[in-house]
Amino acid sequence: MDVSVVIPFLNESPNLKPLCEELKMALDSMDKEYEIVFIDDGSTDDGVAVLESFRTQMPQIKVVSFRRNFGQTAAMVAGLDHAQGDVVVTMDADRQNDPADIPALVAKLDEGYDMACGWRFDRQDNYMSRKLPSMLANKLISKITDVSLHDYGCTLKAMRHDLAKRVTLYGEMHRFIPAVASGVGAKIAEVKVNHRARTAGESKYGISRTFRVVLDLITVKFLLRFHARPLHFFGMPGLALGGLGGVLIAYLTIARLFFAVPLGDRPLLIFAFMLLIIGLQFILFGLIGEMQTRTYYESQNKPIYHVRSTIGFDFEPKKRAAASAKKAAAANKTVAKSPRKPAAKKVAKRTTKKSTKTA
Hints:
The protein has 359 residues and is α/β, with parallel strands linked by helices. It folds into three domains: 3-226, Alpha-Beta Complex (Spore Coat Polysaccharide Biosynthesis Protein SpsA, Chain A), CATH 3.90.550.10; 230-300; 315-358. Helix content is 55%, strand content 12%. It has twelve helices and eight strands. It has helices at residues 13-28, 47-54, 72-82, 102-109, 127-145, 161-166, 177-182, 208-226, 230-259, 267-300, 317-337, 341-358, and strands spanning 3-9, 34-40, 61-66, 87-90, 115-119, 157-160, 188-192, 307-311. The chain has an eight-stranded mixed sheet with strand order 7-5-6-4-1-2-3-8, with helices on both faces. The longest helix is centred in the last third of the chain and has 34 residues, at 267-300. The protein is elongated.
């Protein structure tokens, strides 16, 4: 399999059929073997039925249906888990991403990049409600993550298969795939792509997501920089607070011993520092909780989604991985049992000596 296109969707029934038609034109022009993996994130419309009926024209369509709505990040993870292609392309189902841009993104990987991210340079959205907040968010994310991109919010991306399997996502972290990929050493490029106005369906993005983006951004920064050395993160504020506390204790001690200043009438100072320390502890506990969540999902191999049914797949990702491991173990066992070459040489030498004596 050359290319896998991963498309999460939620109640996008009117857009699915025209999207499939555009995908067929774009992918057929590449002359590559491909599959299209749709992830139904708990839709309540007839989107799955639309895709299933269209499979008669496009058998490359595959569908993974969730038991309920788990969110776009979980849908993206499910798509990456089920993708078999050497190159994995992600995009939205609302038809604002143009499938005609997929060949350019895939071609960018041939230049040696591990990931090619779309840049909606002529974005067809409202300026005040969508474009301006997006520009500010992109600058902030680029500054904090040290991965400079014009458009973090563009779902249209292409990445190599091995990178797709190494990217670990949860929460609302699908927006930060480039930053997470950079954490595993990926080489990232940006490609200008077409962006179209939504013609059907309703947008699933709201102002409430802004606050979650900020919290996830803090998490991403922490995991990228301090996940292997948390003492550097916790130690710096600890030293600062400890040093400040030491200075205050020294000051109060001197005031009490040399100037007879009473200390019992200063509860406000103690209360202020208690609030400061408690607030800092809450932040640190939140970050520790994020690390524990990441460790839990990775060590337990526990998915962040649950599949109700699949269409078009002849395997399950975990079963395929187990089968691959079993096959590799069998191959190693065969190699271990194979005869050693030096023994073969000795047999050859003995045969030569016998033939010489006979002569």
